[in-house]
Amino acid sequence: QPEVVGNAGLLAQSNDPADIARQLERILTDPVESTRLRRAAPLQAAEFSWSKTAELALTALSPKHKTSRQRNSPSSGDRPRIAFFAPLPPKQSGIADYSMKLLNELKKHYSIDLYHEPGYEPEPGLAHGDFACRDYRLFERFDHAVQYHEVVYQMGNSSYHRFIYETLQRRGGVVTLHDFALAGFQYWMGQQAGTPGE
Prior knowledge:
40% of the residues lie in helices and 13% in strands. It is of the alpha/beta class. It is globular, with a radius of gyration of 19 Å. The two termini are 25 Å apart.
């Protein structure tokens, strides 16, 4: 997605090691290109902010994006209810930290049910009235009962995201893709017992 990378990155075919090597070689051996990217990166990074991310998420979740299938839960009061899938603290993950910041903004406008992988013990700060924390294996039952306004997924390139990947294949929603390529995640998935062949 060149419009996201802007002038601050070089695109490569993620499934082509030779192409990745060529792009890395350009950066490592071409001082002009290296200097250009070093100067462009902070400018491109300045295009992103927590408030802009929250604004984009709110726009994606606005009522005009609702389908006929999605209705507000009667128990959610005057705030629409959303399901939120992400690795969460105390997981050692930048996406877990990011998700907490995003949740603090979203909870001003939505009732939120957090879904997590089996065996996860929520951080104490999550175990209060702002969020319901549920094992993702219960999602289908709650989805039918609650009729979520929307489902939000935070998808990244690590083993922490298997439960997210499995769910979003069955139920669409708003997906934040934190990595341009998921090669590491797909490689890890391919090593797991019981993973169906692609």
